[in-house]
Design a protein that fits this description.
single chain, 236 residues, alpha/beta, Spore Coat Polysaccharide Biosynthesis Protein SpsA, Chain A, seven-stranded mixed sheet, 11 strands
Length: 236
């Protein structure tokens, strides 16, 4: 198993659903930026030694981050979409740091409650394609059908035995993920996470069961829940 890992942290978006005055990664969580809490969690793992943070060209907040001058945290310019930002991050670490046929992690900047044990489980997985944290579905899952502008019907119920909610980090070899993202971009495929890029070229990573606490801060209520849960994660 690799002794050290790079993490790509795409953070060039604005998080419109949060309806905040600043990009959601710069909202305050326990006295620090949300992204700062995420970076702190990642760097507390003994095998995470470098983080590449993808920021927008006009980012006005990063210089106030507690990690802005840390040598383990490397800034690069992101892209229009998340997949573009991940691509730029892969180019950055492959070109400037000679990382190619090695596993890298990609993590959402807005998942500050990632636990060390979840990272352990992800790194321990030995699928050569890669792996990702995910949660088995617990609720009954409905597939919908839009019948009018204001009305949505149930089309069918899906077997939740086979439904998982994808999380991050996701772990893939840098060159393989780069190639899959480039191909998907050329084909104008919708890529919502890194796993979907690998799936689009016929490669299937393992699902590693994560924790419900590793949710993505998307709505205002999520920030409230993250604030309540953060003290419980100190040593886990």
């Amino acid at each position: 198993m690799t002794d050290s890992y790079w993490v790509i942290l795409p953070a060039a978006g604005v998080g419109a659903r949060m309806q905040a005055n600043v990009p959601k990664q710069y909202l305050t969580l326990d006295g620090q930026y949300l992204i700062d809490q995420t970076i702190k969690r990642l760097l507390s793992h003994e095998k995470v030694n470098n983080i590449a943070v993808g920021l927008s060209l006009n980012d006005a907040y990063w210089l106030d981050s507690i990690w802005a001058n840390d040598k383990r945290v490397h800034r690069y310019i992101g892209g229009k979409e998340r997949s573009d930002t991940v691509l730029n991050g892969l180019s950055f670490i492959m070109d400037k740091h000679a990382i190619k046929d090695e596993f890298v992690l990609v993590h959402d900047a807005a998942r500050p409650l990632i636990s060390l044990s979840e990272i352990d489980d992800l790194l321990a997985n030995n699928n050569p394609v890669g792996s990702l944290l995910a949660m088995p579905a617990k609720d009954t899952i409905k597939q919908s059908k839009q019948v009018s502008k204001h009305q949505t019907h149930v089309q069918t119920s899906l077997d939740r035995q086979f439904i998982w909610h994808a999380q991050t980090p996701q772990k893939f070899k840098a060159d393989a993920l780069f190639a899959a993202l480039i191909k998907a971009k050329k084909q104008s495929l919708m890529i919502t996470d890194e796993s979907s890029a690998l799936e689009s070229v016929g490669q299937y990573p393992d699902l590693v069961e994560g924790k419900a606490s590793n949710f993505k801060v998307t709505l205002p209520i999520d920030l409230v829940m993250a604030q309540a849960l953060l003290p419980l994660l100190d040593n886990h």
